[in-house]
Amino acid sequence: MYYLEGVLEREPWLLPCDASGINASAALGFDSSTRQYKVMHVVSDSNGFEIFNLTGVDERWERVSGPWEEDLDDRPFNPIDFRWKDPVSINGRILHWYVDSSEYFISVEVKEGGFSRTYRPIKSRKYSLVELGGFLSVVYCDSDMKMDVWILEDFEVQVWSKKHTIVAESINYICLKSLKSSSQHEGSMPNLGKLVPVTGVRNGRLLILKHRNSNIYVYDTRTNVMKKARSNMKNLVSFIPYKDSLFSMNRISQCRDLI
């Protein structure tokens, strides 16, 4: 069951409960060509992939093609045990979901509506998907000493380029006096292998990293300066940077009234 709250002038919107499956994930997307908002829904069972058009006439979920149409056994995960994570949204137009594959993740272009595989530049299971400066980024951290940041420059033909290489010994770590702990270990630079990228801000210049102990760190890709943030982040919290838009969600209800 899904609600849209705080984005409409009227009461919270309850989406129809056609979509089933406990192991599921959903995200809001925007089709700029038709100015339609859509909810993209993925589940681990055979129901697969569905779309709900918020400005459509029929209030129902539409089944769409997925990346494993020919053979469900080709899925790189056990549908019973697998837990979907929140997708990475690129300007609300392309959504990317992690799957337990060493080669690819799955993506959907909101305008087209079909889900497909996007192959990563390097085979590895230890990676993170984040948005950096309006582009999808894959961050690899296979060691305690280095991180590699790749950018998907062209989604259609899947062109990748390496944007940054973060080396531990080149980082200028600054611990603010107000954040220094009585423990010398906690006041030192964290181990890169224990950091997970969660998002990028300031047009991709700053990389936000979460430590396993919930501490948050900010890394500046231009100056190589890393600082510990004043706040922590619990495991169940999602970090989503806010970006203003010319298209207000309040217009959804207006669009529906005109149909």
Automatic annotation (TrEMBL):
Domain F-box associated beta-propeller type: start-end pairs: 20-173
Domain of life: Eukaryota
Pfam families per record: FBA_3
Protein name: F-box associated beta-propeller type 3 domain-containing protein
Naturally occurring in which organism (per UniProt): Anisodus acutangulus
